[in-house]
Specification:
Helix content: 40-55%
Mean pLDDT: 92
Shape: globular
Number of helices: 5
Number of strands: 4
Largest sheet: 2 strands, antiparallel
Structural class: alpha+beta
């Protein structure tokens, strides 16, 4: 329960602080990529319950799968994730937890890998600060389960600090 209150406090505070950046990115996406500004996708959350993840749109909507320079920049800086703070406020996500993967992966998980759905997914997590896209899927699952088994508020603060550091210095 304390983690949920902390998530709300952090997500609301971050939303207020990041509002000028949020508005600037909205305008940039509108001018460079057009409408829609946001990208929605269903993801499995706590107990595999599906929720609609929201991010800034980063791809051109022409079925080519192309990612223009603005989209690449938003992804590399993780600024495309700012709207996901709304998912935290709604209670679909936490600030820290296993990153929510695609719904179509659910049938592929082993019983062990399914443990990642025992808690709310996070905007950031242990795997993100320990390699992100530089580690294998197996390593990500191992780190997700390790986090579930060892989570504390101190660990969450450490992960949040490391996330800010990695985003600021654009590591991994």
């Amino acid at each position: 329960m304390f983690k949920r209150l902390l998530d709300l406090l952090l997500a609301i505070s971050a939303s207020i602080v990041l509002m000028p950046i949020f508005l600037m990115i909205m305008i940039m996406v509108l001018l460079k990529l057009g409408r829609p500004i946001f990208f929605y996708q269903y993801r499995p959350g706590l107990n595999k319950k599906e929720f609609k993840l929201i991010k800034f749109r980063t791809m051109i909507d022409d079925n080519s799968g192309r990612i223009p320079p603005l989209g690449k920049w938003l992804r590399s800086t993780s600024l495309d994730e700012i709207p996901s703070l709304w998912n935290v406020i709604k209670g679909d996500m936490s600030m820290v937890g296993p990153r929510p993967l695609l719904v179509e992966y659910l049938p592929l998980y082993s019983e062990y890998q399914n443990r990642r759905h025992e808690i709310r997914p996070g905007i950031t997590g242990w795997a993100q600060v320990n390699g992100r896209n530089m580690i294998s899927w197996e390593e990500k699952f191992e780190m997700d389960i390790w986090y579930i088994e060892n989570r504390t508020l101190k660990l969450d603060f450490n992960i949040l600090f490391l996330t800010i550091k990695k985003v600021f210095f654009r590591e991994d």
